Amino acid sequence: MTATASPPTRNGVDTATLFATIDAVKGAPQAAAFTFRADNEWVSGTHNRSTIHGFFGVGEERAHEHTFTFDADHPAVLVGRDNGPTPVEFVLHALAACLTAGLANIAAARGITLTEVRSTVSGDIDLNGILGLNPAVRNGYQGITVKFTVRGDAPADKLRALVEQSRARSAVYDVITNGVPVAIEVDAG
Amino acid sequence: MTATASPPTRNGVDTATLFATIDAVKGAPQAAAFTFRADNEWVSGTHNRSTIHGFFGVGEERAHEHTFTFDADHPAVLVGRDNGPTPVEFVLHALAACLTAGLANIAAARGITLTEVRSTVSGDIDLNGILGLNPAVRNGYQGITVKFTVRGDAPADKLRALVEQSRARSAVYDVITNGVPVAIEVDAG
């Protein structure tokens, strides 16, 4: 009898490769130095487009399998032409995506099979800030709320613990809650 | 002879509407309270998808003209299937898009016609943080650099000043450099 082994995945996560990757980085910590990039080109008005393709990691320049392009714009009510979401909406997507990816990995590592993960991320912003009308109002979000629905084959407290551990190890959560220094260089002429 | 008036735009920005909008908010500051949202659904492994459509602003629930969906994933080297950029790359896109949209608006307001605006945003991240291998390493980017190329019908110092004013009024720059409180709620079961 020939047995066909299932691939060692749970939640679509190849846990053997995940653990092997962590072990590899443990032995060569410098492999974990990554640089990600986005190239943006102005189109017209508030409409512009980013291309995401190459990145540096594990010691060399690499690239995604595809070239990804994303348009951003303002809606008409914010004097744009609505060719894409606003930049601040992409921040919410990034946060949801990071917490959810981590959650799936952590669940797989803990032997928990997920059946559903949904979230709604909302951010409150007072545009008196960016319009320069009230110096007491910040430009960015005043607060962001993430509402998760998580279903799987573990008790509720174990499922909640997945979200907590994902939060504790989320790159985007760290960026958004703690801030990052940003340097801007300009070639003008 | 019939004259056809050009629309009062510069850089694709309808400056008359832009100024009218600012004046309207000046008279009714509460109109500037916006809430943006992204709905995310886990697909498999590190692959998940956000939908961006509705938002609240100028006193009522509104929606983009289209429903925008964005996939996020990890590349194979980070144990994903590369169905989309990583969440942290979307953060770079958001920053580039916000600074560029602001720049075009400010240039229009200052009577400067732009011919080219490009930027590359790069972020350095040490994955020893999110992998839990070194508690001294943060999860998120350690630093982000934005390199702008700006061309237009003004001297270099005036073009540089556009970038500086856009930075000073950018929602995403504020979010990324200063941080925002994030609340997470979980419905688990």
Structure commentary:
2 copies of one chain form a homodimer. In chain A, the strands form 3 sheets. Chain A has a 3-stranded antiparallel sheet, with no helix packed on it. In chain A, strands 1-2 form a two-stranded antiparallel sheet. The termini of chain A are far apart. Chain A is of the alpha+beta class. In chain A, helix 2 (87-109) crosses helix 4. Helices cover 30% and strands 37% of the residues of chain A. Chain A has 4 helices and 8 strands, in the order ββαβββαββααβ. The interface between A and B is large, with 132 and 132 residues.
Please summarize what this structure is.
2 copies of one chain form a homodimer. Chain A is built from 4 helices and 8 strands, in the order ββαβββαββααβ. The first copy, chain A, is an alpha+beta fold.
Please outline the helices and strands:
Two copies of one chain form a homodimer.
Chain A: E1 9-10, E2 13-14, H1 15-27, E3 33-44, E4 47-57, E5 60-72, H2 87-109, E6 114-126, E7 143-152, H3 156-168, H4 171-178, E8 182-188
Antiparallel strand pairs in A: 1-2, 3-4, 4-5, 6-7
Order of helices and strands of chain A: EEHEEEHEEHHE
Indicate the multimeric state. homodimer
Radius of gyration of chain A: 20 Å
How are strands sequenced across the largest beta sheet of chain A?
A: 3-4-5
Specify the biggest β-sheet of chain A: 3 strands, antiparallel
Helix content estimate of chain A: 25-40%
> Count the strands of chain A?
8
Shape of chain A: globular
Structural class of chain A: alpha+beta
